[in-house]
């Protein structure tokens, strides 16, 4: 029998996990294996549960207990459901974007870099991308356009930040990912090559090849490396890749936002011949 716990006061301590803990507190940097994340909206929560993420509690509008919360009440009968009137929950920053439901969950154990390299033929590597919105958008494109996994350098924004999860529409739970260690770019790139990956850096260089070059899609294993929003890729990264790849531009435009560029790159380079 589900436990439904009504909340009438925004300052109720039971709301702390949703309303007053920062992303870093949820992440628990001292012990990330015991960290927490917040999933927003029924669709995202469903994808997280399908991926095996373990729920701690739910928070929903009172009115949803009779409709969209019902599948979760049935699926997670031993998990507490906090409910509150809309007027209380709108004091939560951004609640209007949650479609009336939140779920606190345990952070899943991440796969190893070696495991991702072994099981993937199209890998995405994100270098120092710090905007959670861009991270979320890149994950959504990676999942939709044929990528097998994502590796992130340690300075990237965490894919389980609330905004990243929301922008990704829960695809952070559908495509495997993990963090690289501090050895990037070397020997990280060497490890990719040892696993048989042809490494391509997305950058504007005189020697860049066009993204539609047939030799790229013919590669059995391809690692696509994207750089930070402002600085782009490190010179050391570019210099150690097998190819530098660019997207042809028109009207004097020299670059795209990294999330937009990722969608173009994944569509073209995700093809297998």
TrEMBL record:
> What protein name is recorded for this chain?
RNA methyltransferase
Q: Which residues cross the membrane?
A: none
List the GO biological process terms: methylation; RNA processing
PANTHER family, per database record: RRNA METHYLASE (PTHR43191:SF12), RRNA METHYLTRANSFERASE 3 (PTHR43191)
Task: Name the keywords, alphabetized.
Answer: Methyltransferase, Transferase
Native organism is Gallintestinimicrobium propionicum
Is Transferase found in the keyword set? yes
* UniProt domain tRNA/rRNA methyltransferase SpoU type: residue ranges: 123-266
Q: Which molecular-function annotation in GO is an example for this chain?
A: RNA binding
């Amino acid at each position: 029998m589900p436990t439904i716990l009504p909340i009438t006061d925004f300052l109720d301590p039971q709301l702390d996990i949703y309303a007053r803990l920062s992303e870093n507190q949820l992440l628990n940097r001292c012990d990330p294996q015991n960290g927490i994340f917040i999933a927003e909206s029924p669709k995202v929560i469903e994808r997280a549960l399908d991926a095996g993420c373990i729920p701690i509690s739910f928070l929903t509008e009172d009115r949803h207990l009779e409709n969209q919360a019902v599948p979760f009440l049935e699926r997670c009968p031993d998990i507490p459901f906090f409910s509150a009137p809309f007027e209380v929950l709108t004091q939560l920053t951004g609640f209007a974007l949650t479609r009336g439901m939140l779920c606190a969950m345990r952070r899943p154990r991440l796969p190893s870099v070696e495991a991702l390299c072994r099981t993937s033929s199209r890998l995405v590597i994100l270098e120092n991308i710090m905007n959670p919105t861009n991270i979320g958008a890149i994950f959504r494109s990676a999942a939709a356009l044929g990528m097998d996994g994502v590796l992130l350098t340690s300075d990237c924004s965490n894919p389980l930040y609330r905004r990243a999860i929301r922008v990704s529409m829960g695809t952070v739970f559908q495509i495997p990912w993990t963090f690289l260690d501090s050895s990037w770019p070397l020997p990280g790139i060497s490890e990719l090559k040892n696993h048989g990956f042809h490494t391509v850096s997305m950058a504007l260089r005189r020697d860049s090849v066009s993204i539609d070059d047939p030799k790229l899609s013919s590669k059995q294993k391809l690692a696509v490396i994207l750089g930070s929003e402002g600085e782009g890729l490190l010179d050391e990264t570019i210099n150690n890749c097998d190819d530098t790849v660019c997207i042809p531009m028109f009207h004097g435009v020299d670059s795209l936002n990294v999330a937009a560029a990722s969608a173009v790159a994944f569509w073209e380079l995700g093809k297998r011949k």
